[in-house]
Amino acid sequence: MQPRTRAAALAVPAVAAVLLAAPAAAEPQPWWAAPSGGRSAIALEGVPGTVFEDKLSVVNPGTAPRTVELRATGAWITLAERRVRVPPRTRADVPLTVTVPTGAVPGGHPAAVTVTGEGRQLQVPVTVRVTGPTLAALSVEHVRVSGTGRGTVIHYALVNRGNTVLAPHLEIRAVGVFGQVLHRTPGGVPAELPPGRSLRLTEPWPGAPRLDRVRVSVTATAPGAAHSTASDTYTPLPWLLPGLGAAVAAAGAYWLVRRRRKAVRP
């Protein structure tokens, strides 16, 4: 890993070509900032653990010195200077370092460097694309059903256990003693689920059966990922089925006793 850059901002006399490159306006801009080399953004690409070094240029085309503040969004960016004083008609190049963590997930990671001064603010985009194998893994967990009647609610968790952004699609099914009683696409599901993200979601079920034993299943799919299903058994009146079973058993026992009594009569 390369050592972190600690050099102070380097003031460079601005040549005529740099000054002429300033955006045309009725009044000259007091200052502007951009990546060095005339780029519109800082775009980097590498594997986890890579350390990038780059520069951000702050140009002062005016006749008075300007002071600006620099702030990076994202923990990967380290600025050599956070406060820069730029002399008149001068460009200051501020070194910066972007350190990609060893555990960074593949894909694009956007960030920015914000430059403010004299009531003006500019953002310089910084995009780091981490290369490496991707893993798409979507999981449905902790399915349960609460309430009865119109207050019935299906609870479940949706988890992205991979290292890439997923676009989940969900289906909820419920099958009772006499067949399917529910099949729908739930609401509130995000269009994208970032890596490592876990969401607890609920789906109202006001039409849930009141006298049935139901198996509720939630199935999640996403492009490139295997489907995942989790389920729970729902009995709105938990005493009903055991009570019916006991009643049937009692009736059967009573019928057998009466039959035996009739059989032993002379």
How many strands?
17
Q: What is the chain-wise order of helices and strands?
A: EHEEEEEEEEEEEEEEEEH
Please outline the major beta sheet: 5 strands, antiparallel
Percent of residues in helices comes to: 10-25%
Regarding quaternary structure, how should these chains be classified? single chain
Strand content: over 45%
Number of helical elements: 2
Shape: elongated
What is the radius of gyration? Answer: 33 Å
The whole-number mean of residue pLDDT values reads 84
Provide the structure class. mainly beta
Low-confidence stretches: 1-26
What is the straight-line distance between the termini? 104 Å
Give a description of the structure:
It contains 2 helices and 17 strands. It has 266 residues and is mainly β. Strands 1, 2, 4, 6 and 8 form a 5-stranded antiparallel β-sheet that branches. Strands 3-10-9-5-7 form a 5-stranded mixed β-sheet, with no helix packed on it. A hairpin with a 2-residue loop joins strand 9 (107-117) and strand 10. The termini are far apart. Mean pLDDT is 84; it is low at 1-26.
